[in-house]
Amino acid sequence: MSSKNINSPTNVVGQLIFLILIGNHYYYWAVADSPIKTVVVLVMENRSFDHMLGWMKKLNPEINGVDGSESNPISTTDPKARRILFGDRSHYVDPDPGHSFQAIREQIFGSNDSSKNPAPMNGFAQQALSMDSNMPEQVMNGFQPDMVAVYKTLVSEFAVFDRWFASVPASTQPNRLYVHSATSHGATSNNASLLAKGYPQRTIFDNLDDAGINFGIYYQNIPATLFYRNLRKLKYIGKFHPYDLTFKNDAKSGKLPGYVVVEQRYMDSKLQPANDDHPSHDVYQGQMFVKEVYETLRASPQWNQTLLVITYDEHGGFFDHVPTPVSGVPNPDGIIGEPFDFKFDRLGVRVPTIMISPWIEKGTVVHGPNGSPFPTSEYEHSSIPATVKKIFDLPSPFLTKRDEWAATFEHILQTRKEPRTDCPDKLPTPTKIRKAEANEDANISEFQQELVQLAAVLKGDHLLTSYPEKIGKKMTVREGKAYMEDAVKRFFEAGFSAKKIGVDEEQIVQMRPSLTTRSSTNLHP
Ligand SMILES: *[C@@H]1O[C@H](CO)[C@@H](O)[C@H](O)[C@H]1NC(C)=O
Ligand SMILES: *[C@@H]1O[C@H](CO)[C@@H](O)[C@H](O)[C@H]1NC(C)=O
Ligand SMILES: *[C@@H]1O[C@H](CO)[C@@H](O)[C@H](O)[C@H]1NC(C)=O
Ligand SMILES: *[C@@H]1O[C@H](CO)[C@@H](O)[C@H](O)[C@H]1NC(C)=O
């Protein structure tokens, strides 16, 4: 070819196409090369980063944790108010600190004025004091690393994220919904009528299913993922597995699906203590559970293709010193919520997030995403569906504007040519913290009541009352546990029967309430 052709218009076009092809080629190569074929997600309950992991800064100064100089005044309006320093004496916490939308606003901003940027993070002690005189001390303390020995090992062996926030400055349910759908569909707290219908938004499970990638939910008392309406469909019934009977076997025989959700025991009983870390449940049990999940995956033939993500739904009212991002956060889907016409345009408090894989370098600390994919992007729960989309090269569009914006973390899996062979087989056994046995006669907590309400929907019992928000209010933990386990069993049995006789797989089984199987006093106000 003669040189005069080089700058001809056709050649410029040719070069452009060549560059685009190179770009695409590189992209597909990178995706096809992802070593991860199984992502396991475990969402614990209600603890802030500083409370669980802040003191690990002593072990690795690169971690943005605490050194004990952090403090909160007992009153944000009185300049002479006593200040409480952040301590390392966390032990067993009961009762549960405040984490409603209003309580969290006061914790973050020190007042009802949510316009301060950066957020001062100075109202934790004051808000706690309004609940109980001992509570300021409880929320202003964290665990010594040896008290959470399982995390101590995981943080030093794998990756800790020290800038990962709850998606909404609100309680459990909205944040758990963001983990798999990048929106709470307008919820800032439990909404009993939405709950009965099931949250309608599209989820990462739907996107995985469309792409032919299998998923599985390993549940204990009840799968909280059934809050999503779509997951109640007959076509997904076979994706739910009782954890105790199946998780270890599936891992051992290399049969874990591509996306795995492990749900813990939310109900505290003597034989099976709760292990979700929710106050007043013993953090020891949560540590034992994380240890069991890790050791099971570590021993699996799938270990070399596995990523385990451990995060916390929200901070549970415990102090954290890192200002909550209050600007540049996109509303996911245009829905405005209650209270105060909340626009879902600021994040919640920072929570602990740990990632584990033989592809992760020992002692990795991940700070913020440094302006990628958007200048204001942060790590938050929507980062999980955003990264799962990349790891599995899912063709579906983003779920919402929020996962499109959220930072992704696949890069921590891309630094090595082969998986590590030095990952520990076993984790330390933590010391027991709570001395007493579970109190099965305790009243159920708000979160447990929400799970009972979900159970009532599965069983059809919610049709018996015009006050769905009162269902379960009077149950004890023992009654609630029995009620929900029975509901789950019946719902799945009915689902499998319906499938057998060929009912359309897009349908959801609607059970008839059976008056003979429960005490109606539990349902009516
Ligand atoms: C702040 O808001 C709470 C509840 O929304 C209210 O009870 C309280 O009186 C307000 N405090 C001030 C100082 O306005
Ligand atoms: C619950 O959700 C429904 C439907 O989105 C909404 O109309 C209703 O106002 C919500 N209730 C509360 C208490 O937020
Ligand atoms: C994982 O990969 C390492 C390094 O290639 C290899 O030594 C080990 O046997 C593999 N383990 C499994 C369970 O395949
Ligand atoms: C449990 O709730 C009932 C009301 O439903 C109340 O009378 C009782 O004091 C509560 N018990 C505890 C231990 O909080």
TrEMBL record:
GO molecular function per UniProt: phosphoric ester hydrolase activity
Gene Ontology biological process terms in this record: phospholipid catabolic process
Localisation: Secreted
InterPro entries reported for this sequence: Alkaline_phosphatase_core_sf, Phosphoesterase
Signal peptide per UniProt: none
Ranges that cross the membrane: 12-29
Keywords annotated in UniProt: Hydrolase, Membrane, Secreted, Signal, Transmembrane, Transmembrane helix
One cellular-component annotation, GO: extracellular region
Gene3D superfamilies: Alkaline Phosphatase, subunit A
A Pfam family matched in the record: Phosphoesterase
Record family assignment: Belongs to the bacterial phospholipase C family.
Name of the featured protein: Non-specific phospholipase C2
Species assigned in the record: Nicotiana tabacum (Common tobacco)
